[in-house]
Amino acid sequence: MKIVHFSDPHAGGGAEDWMAYFDKRWVGVFNYRFRRRFRHDLSKLERAVAYILSIRPDVAVCTGDLTSAGQPGEFERVRQVLEPLRNSDIPLIYMPGNHDCYVKRPKCVKAMKDMVEYLSCGRSSFDSFPSRETVAGAEFYKLNTSRPSNLLCSWGFLYKEDAEKISGWSREEKTLPRILVSHYPMTEDHPILRIRHRLFGQKKILQLLEEEKIDLVLCGHVHKPYFQRRADGRIFECCAGSVTRNGSLVEINISADGKFDFKTVEL
Ligand SMILES: [Fe+2]
Ligand SMILES: [Fe+2]
Hints:
The chain is an alpha/beta fold and 267 residues long. It contains seven helices and 13 strands. It has one domain (2-266): 4-Layer Sandwich (Purple Acid Phosphatase, chain A, domain 2), CATH 3.60.21.10. Helix 2 runs parallel beside helix 3 and helix 3 (72-86) packs parallel to helix 4 (106-119). 43% of the residues are buried.
């Protein structure tokens, strides 16, 4: 089976209402105006969608940060680009990122939740995460770790009850490859993950990875793509990087005997 993995398109725009200047959205808007819009090119996401439609994988996975400040207009901008993929018969798994869960403002939360339902054609809902889904010969564990956080940090939080749920599923007999989909990487080897961008509470998941109860983590958040490997060289964590910054995505083939093969594709 073939999976295509992309992440972090970061569509953006100006403040959509005056209240945005009183919550964290102004940070996202400021960042977009002076930094992100020069780095992230949505036409690269268009190219990614065209490429995915041309190679027809069994499933496509987007590990979040569709937006910069989680505002409805930003979701709408990226929705239009993803629409042909969503309307194809290729199942799409989308896990929101910290920028999609940026603030508690009800209209922003609603836009994010609507996006989860829309892109999955109703197979996922934000409130049911963590949830699991078998698609084309692999089992996907969909885990949300993104929550609104303070002004200066982009922390992620993995709740204890969510880790326990994943742990319970992982102890069942494994008949298919198991893939965890999360915006945040589970490992902290990348320097930017150590302080302002880190995840809390993933210890149990790291243990399941070590025991190979879970085979692979698909994640984003770090904008430069990278792989984490086991001691024998096999990859157990794939960070796709930002599709609109690097113009790349990752193709993963899983053979009938459960071997993973990874290919970074420059668009
Ligand atoms: Fe990001
Ligand atoms: Fe992120």
